């Protein structure tokens, strides 16, 4: 076999016990990797006590690579994390690029399962066979940039190859509910507060170094595929745009269709896009290209602000989601301030989508008199006030003054603010919607609604397919022509995007950006050439379906019900002009069709029979009989 | 035959619109700054138009198959028409090869903000020049009580 490193690490921070377990290849065949492994192992660990507090030692944390992670191919450097989310209370997960997953495999491990809670700030040191829990006292309190640099320097010479650091910042240490985990300063497991779980476990970082490689089962076939894909990538305009401008390339394209939210989702057109779009990013702050391991797409960029109030040393540039969250969402056309807010979020270790969207929500509360300068510690939290936006970002990071209220995320902040603050929310299951407007593509509404982790455009491939970046001719539903601004066929589309998507970006852990040009044949072939398995497309779709029900079932186990599949009023308000004028997703229709296709009961819980059919009888017993099956 | 009854009519409308854009300073300045020479190859009906931004003013040349273009854009007349209403999902059109672009793509993408005002201009141009029947805009009217 190939692709896999062949071992999983089980680390209990309470007892200090470290176990290396061989990867069961029958298990690998059934779940492929990534969140397939992670969610399955997580369920096994909590099924005796499913009502686990996200910030308790009893909440396990899974970090898993895929069988492709570490191969020198485009769009496969990614790895995954998962646990019960302290932000939403439901299943939480995130998918990350960068280098850490590769280095973990070089050390000989496909993933880690972390349980318990260390008695004092700790980090996990991995260098091939050496795995130790070490004192992180000197790193505790450092931001993610400084912790990364200092740990890398301190550990130099302790391994043959310099390792990779993945760490939390002060936000995670302080259990900020949307704290992220960051590799190499820029690659964030951003959503659903994974960093807070590390903070609660007193886990500052993991350092992974290894002398191995990732070998494919059929290297010659993989090489042939790589050659075949060369022209596919060269012809892809989507890839060319990513290489040229990174994810912010979508701003200009998305603005045409009304995909990019403005003023907390209240407007459809805004002149400020010229200021914060890719042309100005390149002219004003661009400072170089970066990439993930083995990927020639290089969609990551560096930025630098040389002077002015938002002066920032060369470092990670804001991605699309960040530019929009802190930009058009807040009517903020100061690109430099967006770069600075991004730097604060990265350094402290916070999710930029939740942070920016929560500030936009707070601005609307301020505008409508629900909060005043007295509440905001003197800040004039008004639309476009870049100074106040950056200042509030820092206050949130430090949980200082009103920042402590917003550090709970917008949903909990709305409950504290009271009155009609909830009218300004953009959350589903407590997670702020990403920067793609469902009024421009109705399937997004359903995708946000039924996603196990809350409003998310990456929880399936719906955004890629309905948004147009991905075309999968082998799967009829993923290649059909969709009527604009219509809710027809979106339930069917979402199901297909979830099943194939779980295989693609959760289990095989393909990148939803850099691997977009692959058709299904190429995607399945690459997994087969790497692993030596002989998966068919039908089989990987079945696995994807199993993993989707697993993640959905975990959220159901944590209390998610049909009401949690609804979109907030703000996203379901018809726009009167602009590209999406008059367009409104028909959620009743889409949810009814989706529930029927997915065989849900009226509570939004998958029926026992379908769970048993997809190989999740134990989950069925837990959900329907309240017992460990 | 698609939505245009003849290549002549399509040329009259589209080349006319390109000239109208070229006469609109806010757009023309940005196009000229790009120095691009773009050849549009349309089908159903077949038509070639070169938009030359390499000089002091925008030069629109139908049937020019000789000039060496920097960028070649190919699409059906219908896709082109819908594009200028802002009604084409550009990402999807390019992925599904309803639009094919060849040349320095980043430079082309940089023109998107420059031409964005043209989406509002196109229906107005059609109405003002006797092409009302080609105006596919169906303005949304908020429901009345």
* Rg from Cα of chain B: 15 Å
Fold-level CATH name of the largest domain in chain A: Aldehyde Ferredoxin Oxidoreductase,  A, domain 1
Q: Tell me the overall shape of chain A.
A: globular
Q: Which CATH class of chain B is shown? A: Alpha Beta
**Which percent bin holds the helix content of chain A?**
25-40%
Task: State the separation between the terminal residues of chain A, measured CA to CA.
Answer: 32 Å
* Helical/strand content category of chain A: alpha+beta
CATH homologous superfamily (4th level) name of chain B = SCP2 sterol-binding domain
Mean pLDDT of chain A: 97
Strand order of the largest sheet of chain A: 2-1-6-3-4-5
The general outline of chain B is: globular
CATH first level of the largest domain in chain A: which class? Alpha Beta
State the helix count of chain A.
25
- The tally of strands of chain A reads 17
Which architecture of chain B per CATH? 2-Layer Sandwich
The largest sheet of chain B has its strands arranged as 3-2-1-4-5
Low-confidence parts of chain A: none
Succession of helices and strands of chain B: HHEEEEHHEHHH
Low-pLDDT residue spans of chain B: 139-145
- What's the total helix number of chain B? 7
Task: List the keywords.
heterodimer, A: 629 residues, alpha+beta, Aldehyde Ferredoxin Oxidoreductase,  A, domain 1, Aldehyde Ferredoxin Oxidoreductase Protein, subunit A, domain 3, 6-stranded mixed sheet, 25 helices, 17 strands, B: alpha+beta, Nonspecific Lipid-transfer Protein, Chain A, 7 helices, 19% strand
Structural overview:
The complex is a heterodimer of chains A (629) and B (145). By secondary structure, chain A is α+β, with helices and mostly antiparallel strands. Chain A folds into three domains: 7-209, Aldehyde Ferredoxin Oxidoreductase,  A, domain 1 (4-Layer Sandwich); 237-425, Aldehyde Ferredoxin Oxidoreductase Protein, subunit A, domain 2 (Orthogonal Bundle), CATH 1.10.569.10; 442-516 and 536-624, Aldehyde Ferredoxin Oxidoreductase Protein, subunit A, domain 3. Chain A is 40% helix and 13% strand. In chain A, the strands form four sheets. In chain A, strands 2-1-6-3-4-5 form a six-stranded mixed sheet, sandwiched between helices. In chain A, α22 runs parallel beside α25. The radius of gyration of chain A is 23 Å and the shape is globular. Chain A starts with 6 loop residues before the first strand and ends in a 5-residue tail after the last helix. The model of chain A has no long low-confidence stretch (mean pLDDT 97). In chain B, β2 (47-52) and β3 form a beta hairpin. Chain B has a single domain (7-134), classed as Nonspecific Lipid-transfer Protein, Chain A, CATH 3.30.1050.10. Residues 139-145 of chain B have low confidence and may be disordered. Chain B is 41% helix and 19% strand. Chain B has 145 residues and is α+β, with helices and mostly antiparallel strands. Chain B has seven helices and five strands, in the order ααββββααβααα. Chains A and B meet through α8 and α9 of A and α4 and α5 of B.
């Amino acid at each position: 076999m190939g692709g896999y490193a062949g071992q999983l690490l089980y680390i209990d921070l309470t007892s200090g016990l470290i176990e290396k377990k061989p990867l069961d290849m029958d298990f690998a065949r059934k779940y492929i990797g990534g969140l397939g492994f992670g969610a399955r192992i997580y369920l096994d660990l909590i099924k005796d006590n499913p009502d686990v507090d996200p910030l308790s030692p009893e909440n396990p944390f899974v970090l898993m690579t895929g069988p492709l992670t570490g191969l020198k191919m485009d769009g496969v450097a990614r790895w995954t994390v998962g646990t019960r989310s302290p932000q939403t209370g439901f299943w939480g997960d995130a998918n990350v690029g960068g280098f850490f997953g590769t280095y973990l495999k070089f050390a000989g491990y496909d993933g880690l399962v972390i349980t318990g809670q260390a008695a004092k700030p700790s980090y996990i040191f991995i260098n091939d066979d050496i795995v130790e829990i070490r004192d992180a006292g000197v790193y505790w309190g450092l931001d993610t940039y400084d912790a990364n640099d200092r740990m890398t320097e301190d550990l130099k010479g302790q391994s043959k190859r310099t390792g990779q650091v993945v760490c939390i910042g002060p936000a995670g240490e302080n259990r900020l509910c949307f704290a992220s985990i960051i590799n190499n300063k820029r690659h964030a497991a951003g959503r659903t507060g994974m960093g807070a779980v590390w903070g609660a476990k007193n886990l500052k970082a993991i350092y992974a170094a290894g002398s191995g490689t990732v070998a494919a089962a059929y290297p010659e076939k993989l090489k042939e595929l790589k050659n075949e894909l060369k022209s596919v990538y060269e012809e892809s305009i989507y890839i060319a745009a990513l290489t040229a401008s990174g994810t912010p390339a979508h701003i200009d394209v998305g603005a045409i269709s009304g995909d990019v939210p403005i003023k907390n989702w209240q407007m459809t057109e805004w002149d400020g896009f010229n200021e914060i779009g890719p042309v100005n990013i390149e002219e004003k702050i661009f400072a170089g290209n970066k990439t993930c391991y083995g990927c020639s797409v290089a969609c990551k960029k560096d930025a630098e602000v040389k002077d002015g109030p938002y002066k920032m040393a060369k470092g990670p540039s804001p991605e699309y989601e960040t530019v929009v969250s802190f930009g058009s969402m807040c009517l903020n056309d100061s690109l430099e301030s967006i770069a600075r807010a991004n730097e604060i979020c990265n350094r402290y270790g916070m999710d930029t989508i939740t942070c920016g969207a929560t500030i936009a929500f707070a601005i609307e509360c301020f505008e409508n008199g629900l909060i005043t300068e007295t509440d905001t510690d003197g800040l004039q939290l008004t639309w476009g006030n870049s100074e106040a936006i950056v200042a509030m970002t820092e206050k949130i990071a430090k949980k200082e003054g009103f920042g402590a209220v917003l550090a709970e995320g917008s949903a909990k902040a709305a409950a504290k603010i009271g009155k009609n603050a909830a009218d300004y929310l953009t959350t589903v299951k407590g997670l702020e919607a990403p920067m793609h407007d469902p009024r421009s593509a109705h399937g997004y509404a359903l995708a946000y609604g039924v996603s196990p982790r809350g409003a998310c455009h990456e929880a399936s491939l719906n955004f890629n397919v309905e948004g147009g970046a991905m075309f999968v001719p082998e799967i009829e539903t993923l290649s059909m022509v969709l009527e604009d601004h219509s809710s027809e066929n979106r339930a069917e589309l979402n199901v297909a995007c979830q099943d194939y998507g779980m295989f693609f970006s959760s289990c095989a852990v393909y990148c939803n950006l850099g691997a977009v040009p692959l058709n299904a044949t190429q995607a399945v072939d690459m997994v087969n050439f790497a692993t030596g398995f002989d998966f068919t497309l039908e089989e990987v779709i079945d696995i994807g379906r199993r993993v989707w029900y697993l993640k959905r079932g975990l959220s159901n186990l944590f209390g998610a019900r049909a009401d949690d599949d609804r979109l907030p009023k703000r996203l379901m308000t018809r726009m009167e002009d602009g590209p999406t004028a008059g367009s409104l997703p028909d959620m009743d229709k889409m949810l009814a069709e989706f529930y029927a296709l997915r065989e849900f009961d009226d509570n939004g819980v998958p029926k026992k029979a379908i769970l048993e059919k997809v190989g999740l009888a134990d989950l069925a017993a837990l959900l329907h009989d309240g017992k460990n099956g | 035959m698609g939505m245009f009854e003849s290549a002549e009519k399509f040329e009259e409308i589209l080349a006319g619109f390109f000239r109208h854009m070229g006469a609109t300073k806010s757009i023309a300045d940005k196009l000229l700054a790009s120095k691009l020479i773009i050849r549009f190859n349309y089908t159903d009906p077949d038509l070639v138009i070169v938009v030359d931004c390499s000089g002091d003013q925008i030069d629109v040349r139908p049937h020019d198959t000789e000039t060496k273009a920097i960028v070649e854009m190919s699409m059906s007349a219908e896709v082109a028409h819908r594009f200028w209403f802002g009604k084409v999902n550009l990402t999807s059109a390019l992925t599904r090869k309803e639009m094919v672009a060849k040349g320095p793509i980043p430079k082309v993408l940089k023109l998107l903000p420059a031409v964005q005002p043209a989406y509002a201009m196109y229906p107005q141009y059609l109405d003002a020049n006797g092409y009302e029947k080609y105006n596919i805009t169906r303005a949304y009217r908020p429901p009345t009580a």
